[in-house]
Design a protein that fits this description.
mainly alpha; single chain; elongated; 2 domains; Serine Threonine Protein Phosphatase 5, Tetratricopeptide repeat
Length: 669
């Protein structure tokens, strides 16, 4: 087919207007998500991910942890989160704003692909521009994409989708460009490489570019290879990056691949149900479910779905031979879903709506073109009405994410046997210190799935808060047996062992955690604390300083380092560290109290007095604070005020002998 004619200056204004409408629509539809809290896998990917805390050295930022959930094996996603952290710390609004911006860019990329492709089809040349805009608009506002846009860590879908579309768009431009072909081809390879670093589904991009070439440009595979052999070899070379990333992610931390407790046959049957669910939601996006759990289907569950899926696959194969354009659309749907919806098990999510981010395009293209064939330009009005309805549904769906309690309660109501739904609701209650409610939901999660390591670990944390340490330790150890190399679980188990008076075993757990993830602050703090308990305070200082090298903003590391230096008699260093704690967390009364005591020990009581006054405003009933304040007052010659503070300390705690002795000494002066 011949390439379409280049745009003339007179056509630029409609193009800019359409692009502006698409971007403005995306921003308006998702304006109500900016304050949605971090959800689901955002915890390990953002809140507990030390590799996003700095942009340099870049090699560390591009090495996400194995326990990073949605960022594991996806360095570009991790880098984008690090950019967010550098700009606004953990302010969730910046993360959502970037997701929306990236989705808007993906919409523009899709629009660019569609308008240049539809102009190649004889029956659609006249209406190619508005039809492409209509399809892009439907995709931009479809409720099925809300999970990908609203859940921050699902940025991997958006980034992968964006670079997938840019890969295809760049190829189309390379075919049309003439003298600039090499530049565009280089851009295609770069986009594909970036996509491989974002999401594994981009593995199919080189194949679909070749199929696009055969369908819309060269006419045959042989001609495409003959004309652009070097380009395709370069494009195929991008697979090397993906192979390297996947080999280093250890089956994405044990959730993807064979031999993980789910057979290929069971997973394949489950994907028959998944594909039919995705198609149904494409046309009627209700109810939307943020987490379908890990349930698998049996042959009796999919006896009618399987033949439909096989018929659709067969129809796509026939169309690739006899109707290449329609075949390409069908291949787009199945090829992009193939990495997640075939026979390779993804054990933690057997069905997931976010996987339809790119495949949904195929459904919308087929629907819009079929409507155009039936109704001509009037189909554009239908598309506009559908876009309005879908956009309203998306705005309403976004509201569900605004309240974690509503989101997870609804999910438990929809799927009460979904263990991860129960754990998610438990996590909500734990964060709000509703420990009994949290324990109930975590306990149900581990009853439903006894091998749910993370739920055992979290239940251990909750039971510790409920004052049931023996039960907590049992769950920690179960979690450790299930995931022996998980650094977060190892660190949690270490803390429990330390609390149980088993420091040697605690050290072993912390060391396991740090071998896997050297930047894990919780493990570094725990190891330092157990060394301090064993009177190895110099070794503890080494651990705390190493932790601060990787996480310089950690309040826990600064505070524990200050305590260790104080115990070692290195008072000047302790004062500096307590000061850094207060710079990071100004309302921390204990750190202010410790800094004041350190200054007194350094012979600087005048500096300590205003600190003690602030401490007593925060902790007016702290007998120890009154006692230490009295010591500072005595050293500055304010004996009467010191006596008053000692008397107050004894009123609060008559058993405080240090205050009694100090009071007697002061009265003798």
């Amino acid at each position: 087919m011949n390439p379409p004619p280049p745009a003339t200056p007179s056509r630029c204004w409609p193009t800019l207007a359409c692009a502006s409408v698409l971007v403005a629509t995306v921003c308006a539809i998702y304006a109500n998500i900016l304050s949605v809290p971090f959800l689901f896998d955002d915890g390990p990917a953002i809140l507990r991910n030390p590799t996003i805390r700095s942009l340099w050295p870049l090699c560390e930022t591009l090495s996400p942890p194995l326990s990073g959930a949605g960022v594991t094996g996806r360095p570009l996603v991790n880098l984008s989160l690090a950019v967010n952290y550098a700009l606004g710390g953990l302010d969730v609004r910046g993360y959502h704003a970037m997701n929306v911006a990236l989705h808007a860019l993906a919409v523009l990329a899709l629009w660019g692909v569609l308008r240049r492709t539809l102009r190649r089809l004889p029956g659609l040349v006249a209406d190619a521009e508005p039809l492409a805009g209509g399809i892009a608009l439907l995709w931009a506002v479809h409720p099925l994409l809300t999970e990908s846009v609203v859940c921050v860590v699902q940025r991997n879908e958006i980034l992968g989708g964006l670079f997938y579309l840019l890969t295809l768009y760049g190829f189309i431009r390379s075919v049309e460009s003439g003298v600039a072909t090499l530049r565009w081809q280089s851009a295609v390879v770069a986009a594909c490489l970036l996509g491989m670093a974002s999401k594994e589904t981009v593995a199919t991009a080189p194949l679909l570019v070749l199929l696009y070439d055969r369908t819309f440009a060269a006419g045959t595979f042989a001609a495409a290879w003959r004309q652009r052999k070097g380009f395709y070899l370069a494009l195929a070379a991008t697979w090397l990056l993906l192979v390297w990333l996947m080999s280093g992610s250890h089956q994405r931390d044990g959730i993807v691949g064979f031999g993980l407790g789910m057979s290929s046959w069971d997973y394949l049957l489950t994907q028959c149900q998944a594909l039919m669910t995705y198609l149904k939601l494409s046309f009627w996006p209700h109810p939307l479910i943020v987490d379908y759990g890990t349930a698998v289907s049996r042959l009796s569950d999919v006896w009618w779905r399987g033949p439909i899926v096989l018929a659709l696959l067969g129809g796509t194969g026939w169309a690739l031979w006899r109707r290449p354009v329609w075949g390409f659309v069908g291949a787009w749907f199945f090829a992009i879903l193939a990495p997640s919806s075939s026979f390779v098990p993804l054990t933690t999510q057997t069905i997931a709506e976010h996987r339809m981010y790119l495949p949904l395009i195929a459904v919308l293209v087929l629907t819009a073109v079929a409507l155009h064939r039936l109704a001509g330009r009037r189909s554009l009005i239908v598309c506009a009405v559908l876009a309005a309805g879908l956009g309203f549904a998306t705005v309403q769906r976004n509201l569900d994410y605004g309240s974690e309690l509503t989101l997870w309660s609804n999910l438990v109501g929809q799927q009460p046997e979904n263990a991860r739904a129960q754990a998610s609701l438990g996590y909500y209650f734990a964060r709000h210190e509703q420990w009994a409610e949290a324990a109930a939901h975590y306990a149900k999660a581990v009853r439903l799935v006894p091998g749910y390591a993370d739920a055992h670990n979290d239940l251990g944390h909750v039971l510790t808060r409920l004052g049931r340490p023996a039960e907590a330790l049992a769950h920690y150890e179960t979690a450790q047996q299930l995931k022996p190399n998980d650094p977060v679980i190892s660190a949690s188990c270490g803390q429990a062992l330390l609390g149980a008076g088993r420091p040697a075993e605690a050290i072993a757990r912390f060391e396991v955690a740090l071998r896997v993830q050297p930047g894990l602050t919780e493990a570094r703090v725990g190891l330092g604390r157990v060394l301090a308990v064993l009177n190895r305070r110099s070794d503890a200082v080494v651990q705390f300083r190493e932790g601060l090298r990787q996480d310089p903003a950690s309040v826990a590391l600064h505070a524990n380092l200050a305590d260790a230096l104080f115990d070692l008699g290195q008072l000047a260093g302790a004062a500096v560290e307590y000061g850094r704690v207060l710079a990071l967390q100004p309302d921390l009364a204990d750190a202010r109290h410790n800094l004041a005591l350190t200054l007194v020990r350094l012979g600087r009581p005048a500096e300590a007095i205003p600190l003690y006054k602030q401490v007593l405003r925060q902790l007016p009933r702290s007998a120890q604070a009154h006692l230490n304040y009295a010591l500072a007052l005595e050293q500055t010659g304010k004996v009467a005020e010191a006596i008053a503070q000692d008397e107050e300390a004894l009123q609060l705690n008559p058993e405080l002998n240090a205050a009694r002795e100090q009071l007697e000494r002061l009265r003798e002066k």
